[in-house]
Amino acid sequence: MCVRICLNSNLMCFLLSTGAYRVSVQTGGSTTIPCHYGQKYKTHVKYWCIGYYLHSCSPVIRTDSTKSTDKTSISDDINQLTITVTMTDLGTEDSGRYWCAVEINGVSDVRTGLFHLSVIPELYVDQQEVTGDEGGSVIVNCYYSNTGNVNWCRIGSVSCVWTISGTPDGT
């Protein structure tokens, strides 16, 4: 059996810093960010906003109204308890601090994820598609200019690789 890993900007280097994810994307690229939430928030409105603090952030997109703009879309999978935000054609002006949040009676909201998005021209992988045999290994080179630790995460999973090498499922 053959395993295929497609590497566009959906599988990327993630950096972890004090409970917040740092997402780096190449200029002109795109990213898909999953945000998990609790069962009790299944019927609530979820949204994606930008700003330093959750209570003062500016909504970019919501699940109850505009579900897409020119560059951003949001979907809510109530079976997986996950909202998925996709941002495309990213420029340096899109860099910032983004929040996934759940609206609670329009008054007090709950944070489900905090992401620091950096759009930089220096991030890239040398191959967009890698193929390997099940049980085997593949090498993915991620080139970046930031300092710090590099981590790999699988979209749709809460587990990441916190070392220089490994697999997105933690083995």
Automatic annotation (TrEMBL):
Molecular-function annotations in GO: transmembrane signaling receptor activity
GO (cellular component) term, any one: plasma membrane
Principal subcellular localisation of the protein: membrane
Keyword field contains Signal: yes
Protein's cellular compartments: Membrane
Keyword set, alphabetical order: Membrane, Signal, Transmembrane
Superkingdom to which the source organism belongs: Eukaryota
Organism encoding this protein: Oncorhynchus tshawytscha
Gene3D superfamilies (UniProt xref): Immunoglobulins
Protein name as it appears in the record: Immunoglobulin domain-containing protein
Occurrences of domain Immunoglobulin (ranges): 20-120
Family annotation (InterPro entries): CD300_family_receptors (IPR050671), Ig-like_dom_sf (IPR036179), Ig-like_fold (IPR013783), Ig_sub (IPR003599), Ig_V-set (IPR013106)
Signal peptide: 1-20
